[in-house]
Amino acid sequence: MNVFVTGVTGFLGSHFLHRRLDRPGLAAVLVRADTDEAARARLQRSLAVAAAAHPPSVAATRTRVAVERGDVSREDCGLEPRRIEALRQAGIDEFWHFAASLAFEAHRRDEIAAQNVGGARHALELAAKLGARRFVHVSTAYVAGRRTGLVPEALHPADGSFNNVYEETKCLAEHAIARAASTRGMDCRILRPSIVVGSSRTGRAGGSESGLYGFIRLLEELRRALPSGRPPIRLLGDPRTPLAFVAVDRAVDDMLALADRGFPAGPVHHLTPRRSIDAATALAIVCAEVGTPDVRIEPARRGERTPLEALIDQRMEFYGGYLRDPKVFERSPVADHEVGEDDLRRLTREYLRELATAPARRDPRCAAASRTAVRSAGDRAAARL
Fold it and tell me: Are 87 and 28 in contact (CB under 8 A)?
């Protein structure tokens, strides 16, 4: 089978391609870069990081890889007509669209929409020109936004309530490609992973910098920057909220299994665990591993929030949506798997080891909040108390 894949230098896309390499066929991959050489180098780096997170494989590389330089925000994803024709002649069976912007800020709405909504449209249009028989769009389970309770494997209202622009644009992208695919008569499937973490086999992060790992970095900065004996830090959220962690290798397992079975049971599939860890338990585990036991999660703060808590609220703007609006995701009958409490401890320890070898790493969304700012806020909080 021949596939075209976008987003292969991202976290989930790189792990998917890494696994796809031991299958026969052609993998044409879209990489954004200024030159062909730079595109190949980007891909090699991403695949190396993904490979390092998994046990060594004895399987031979059977997939031929064709690196196509382009950008999903452009018409035809930036491919020249001659390359489109060459790929069409090669025969593309499935088009997998992973590329997306993880940015979430309201002031960047147009930029995020261009990548997530416009990019999805361009990808589907390119898939049609390539003659792909199936278009697979990788979305997020959190297109459910502020919805609570059981979340079905179905499209959600495009005018629903969302935690941020990322969730909103991913929901709009689902609607856009569903309409376009229906008009073109193309088989379109939507996959919704939840909170994707590192490998279940090695515990390594495998290149992820967001979600759980962004939160761990925040806690590690607090541990290093603030004095002991300070008042507890109160995070806003519902302690009962299930955190649907899914290991990246298990998510890819589900993707490949669904594809092999022809995506039974409908066009939308959640890539989520069998069971989840509640937010309070997860926070206690991660804080214990990092060494910041004086952090707690509360539905509301009693009294005025401290300057430090105000700063943390800013740093938690993206992650905070995971800590409220408890929801459970309907799940197609694929393999049973979960990230248990011991798994979460291992994932946290492995990432802390990674941070110890690269102490200057920071969450790219939070670069403006330096360690100095954290100390300053902590000093003001201590002074007021």
Answer: yes
User: Angle of helix 307-315 relative to helix 212-225, nearest 10 degrees?
Assistant: 150
User: Which residues are within 8 A (CB) of 354 and not within 5 positions of it... i.e. 6 or more apart?
Assistant: 204, 205
Question: At which residue do the structure tokens 């299930």 appear?
Answer: 242
- Inter-residue contact 252 to 19 (CB < 8 Å): yes
- Tell me the per-residue pLDDT of 220-261, one tens digit each, with 9 for 90 and over: 998 888 877 778 899 999 999 999 999 999 999 999 999 999
Q: Which residue has the higher pLDDT, 381 or 200?
A: 200
Q: Are residues 179 and 236 in the same domain?
A: no
- With contact defined as beta carbons under 8 Å apart, do 318 and 104 qualify? yes
> Which residues contact residue 350 at a Cβ distance below 8 angstroms, ignoring those fewer than 6 apart?
198, 202, 203, 204, 205
Give me the domain span that covers residue 361. 209-242+277-325+340-376
Helix, strand or coil, per DSSP, at residue 157:
coil
For residues 213 and 344, give the distance between their C-alpha atoms in angstroms, rounded to a whole number: 11
Please give the Cα distance from 170 to 176 (Å, whole number).
10
pTM: 0.91
Q: Which residue has the tokens 């990092």?
A: 290
Q: How many CB atoms lie within 10 A of CB 261?
A: 11
Same domain, 146 and 54: yes
Token pair, residue 33, equals 């870069």
Residue entry with tokens 């399987």: 59
Q: Are residues 25 and 124 part of one domain?
A: yes
Q: Is residue 162 within 8 Å of 171, Cβ to Cβ?
A: yes
Same domain flag for 90 and 236? no
The closest of 96, 98, 180, 87 to 130, measured between CA atoms, is: 87
Q: Which of 6-15, 40-49, 186-195, 304-313 is least confident?
A: 304-313
Query: Within a 10 A sphere around the Cβ of 350, how many other Cβ atoms?
Result: 18
- Say how many domains are in the chain: 2
Highest mean pLDDT among 66-80, 302-316, 348-362: 66-80
Q: Any residues with CB less than 8 A from the CB of 299 and at least 6 apart, and which?
A: 236, 237, 238, 239
